Amino acid sequence: MSRKPVPAQAGDRSRLELLFDKPQLLSTLFGQYDRNLVALENRLGVYITARGNRVGLEGTAEQVAVARDVLNDLYARIGRGDEVDTGLVDASIAMAAEPVLHGIIRADAGPGAPPIMIRTRKKTIVPRTPAQAHYMRELTANDMIFALGPAGTGKTYVAVAQAVAQLINGSVQRLILSRPAVEAGERLGFLPGDMKEKVDPYLRPLYDALYDCLPAEQVERRIASGEIEVAPIAFMRGRTLADAFVILDEAQNTTQAQMKMFLTRFGQNSRMVICGDPKQVDIPGGIAASGLGDAVTRLEGVESISICRFTVGDVVRHPIVGRIVEAYEGTDG
């Protein structure tokens, strides 16, 4: 592989050669038609050449250092069996730009320590942004976690993956996923079907995350047995949720009374994750009436309760999603 060098200022160029000891992994590292290397060149402005198991890097000292770290990171992930795509390349670049997190993904607790990851039946989830790395640590360290931020930052998906992992290893007996059935411009009463059929569309994102972490037959079997429950928040009233991993999604659409009711369902040997975007409130009264903001104000700083905040820079969907969120957050609407 050889492409036209990327221009750099005279006298500011640095060159480095990497030698990889497992050539069989390089086709995955480079990507089809070298698309991962192309993404690196486009994002960092570095020039990359590949011959056999040697990869040459050329650019500014900073560009070369980041490209080196990203390639080494991706190579290590491939060696562990992780999937690599251009999205992960972008995420690895973002992580490499965070010096305070250097080494956390590889060996947070010292030599030989496992990386931060969540293993499920279908895939292994690794953090794609510094905020996700912090979030994953909090999911194992605290009893109650509030995850706040815009769409596409992985708040609910990572929580579901952690819940599935704990259900599989037996540290919890049940997985309970809930959402408020609040209309975002539509009217629930006009939907066809019985109550379950009416509310299921509101719960679909939770089902999607489940099916991404577990084989379909296991999801269906565990739902039938009661190990996994997906229900509107109203179904939580009067219960004590012990030995369970409980997730509330779209929490910004709870009222203050609903939020208090939900939080006080917390039982022995349980973990509770509350996900939402405080800027996307659909309930009458808007942000002032939302139970999410009220709960965060009351509970921030309380022992065993963690608040994890995501920004538009943590969006891990298609890059255009981040630009859309940023455009909307820059307006009053």
Please outline what is shown here.
With 333 residues, this protein is of the alpha/beta class. It has twelve helices and eleven strands.
Structural account:
There is one protein chain. By secondary structure, the protein is α/β, with parallel strands linked by helices. 40% of the residues lie in helices and 16% in strands. It contains twelve helices and eleven strands. Strands 8-7-9-10-6-11 form a six-stranded parallel sheet, with helices on both faces. A three-stranded antiparallel sheet has the order 1-3-2, with helices on one face. α6 runs parallel beside α7 and α7 packs across α8. The longest helix has 19 residues. The protein is elongated and about 65 Å long.
User: For the largest beta sheet, what order do the strands appear in spatially?
Assistant: 8-7-9-10-6-11
Q: What gyration radius follows from the Cα positions, in whole Å?
A: 22 Å
Instruction: Give the termini separation.
Output: 48 Å
Mean pLDDT score: 79
The H-and-E topology, N to C, reads as EHHEEHHHEEHEHEHHEEHEHEH
Broad structural category: alpha/beta
Oligomer, anyone?
single chain
Shape: elongated
Percent helix range: 25-40%
Provide a count of the helices.
12
Hey, roughly how much beta strand do the residues contain? 15-25%
Biggest sheet features: 6 strands, parallel
Strand tally, please? 11
Ranges where pLDDT stays below 50 over 5 or more residues in a row are 4-11, 98-114, 184-188
